[in-house]
Amino acid sequence: MNNLNEITRRHFLQSTAAAALVAGTLGLAPRAGAAPRKWGVGCRDVHLKFVNPTDSWAALKQIGADCFEADLNDDLALPSLVAPGKTYSIATPQGIAELRADLRAHRCRISAFCMHNQFDSRLDQEIAMTTRTVQAAERLGVKTVRIDVVPRKLKPEEFLPFAIKAGKALCAATPKSKVRFGIENHGKVTNDPDFMEQLIAGVGSKRLGITLDTANLYWWGHPLDKVYQIYERFAPLVWHTHCKSIAYPEEKRNIQREMGWEYGKRCCPVYAGDIDFGRVVAILRRARYQGDLCVENESLGRFPEAERAGILQKEIAFLRQLL
């Protein structure tokens, strides 16, 4: 390991320890001896169409969700949150007020906003959109914004310094906010734990952490035993989760696989796959995680329509039982 990598690793470890301390300062983690925060269990709002395509609130109630991750488009509308005669947006004060009123009326909350950023295509536009999202999140009590940090135009060797620059700009644009940014380990680049480590250390903000997608690391090709090691490595900086799983043949679980190997037919509900969510919960508890468990099921389309709502309901009940 060269000197630069040694410095980066030391910086990251220091940042990890600092993240735990600052979480307590901001009220995002319990103090020593205090009872841990009760985690909510929910799902991405993009799945609610499988339960009730015309009324997301009824769908959330049917599957027993406490919360949901809200998908945002470029207009800061919530295209997957629907109700009879209504659409939702956080682009205006009126839209924020209407969403807040309905969240209260239905006794539900948003666990995170989900953005689909294109930082290396339009950095200034992304900073502006994300700043507005943070401002809305503050008014709605949403603690985390899930962000995409993936190369779309830049070459891989050019992307790390750019991603650090973008991360710093993102945090600098909202310097007084307590809303956190959770980079999802998503795609080829951020499922590489060394890249993620260098990115977080390079930005150096206590607000920048991870949306932990439990299956994406497995999808990337990491052996199952290594996947748990990566969970442990980054657990203190997990702000949000995507809970999903994959069922591989036994002989494929603990070897390095080709990226994305047979994912389309092997992805599955959280209760049916190889990932031990009891172990995931234990890892996050030890790290004093203060977010929610959010189901992301990319296998729903393979099941008959009549079964999909029941699968989501069973996933949420399964995760809640582990708590």
Task: Summarize this structure as a short list of keywords or feature phrases.
single chain; 323 residues; alpha/beta; TIM Barrel; 8-stranded parallel sheet; two-stranded antiparallel sheet; 13 helices
Annotated CATH topology:
TIM Barrel
Distance between the termini: 40 Å
Low confidence ranges: 1-35
Strand order, largest beta sheet: 7-6-5-4-3-2-1-10
Radius of gyration in whole Å, from Cα? 19 Å
Structural domains: how many:
1
Strand content: 5-15%
Structural overview:
This protein has a single domain, classed as Divalent-metal-dependent TIM barrel enzymes (TIM Barrel), CATH 3.20.20. The protein has 13 helices and 10 strands. It has helices at 3-25, 56-63, 93-105, 123-140, 156-173, 187-190, 193-203, 216-220, 224-234, 250-253, 263-266, 277-286, 305-322, and strands at residues 41-44, 67-71, 109-114, 144-147, 180-184, 208-213, 238-242, 245-246, 267-268, 293-295. The strands form 2 sheets. Strands 7-6-5-4-3-2-1-10 form an 8-stranded parallel beta sheet. Strands 8-9 form a two-stranded antiparallel sheet. β3, α4 and β4 form a beta-alpha-beta unit.
Quick recap:
This protein has 13 helices and ten strands.
Topology, element by element:
Elements: H1 3-25, E1 41-44, H2 56-63, E2 67-71, H3 93-105, E3 109-114, H4 123-140, E4 144-147, H5 156-173, E5 180-184, H6 187-190, H7 193-203, E6 208-213, H8 216-220, H9 224-234, E7 238-242, E8 245-246, H10 250-253, H11 263-266, E9 267-268, H12 277-286, E10 293-295, H13 305-322
Parallel strand pairs: 1-2, 1-10, 2-3, 3-4, 4-5, 5-6, 6-7
Antiparallel strand pairs: 8-9
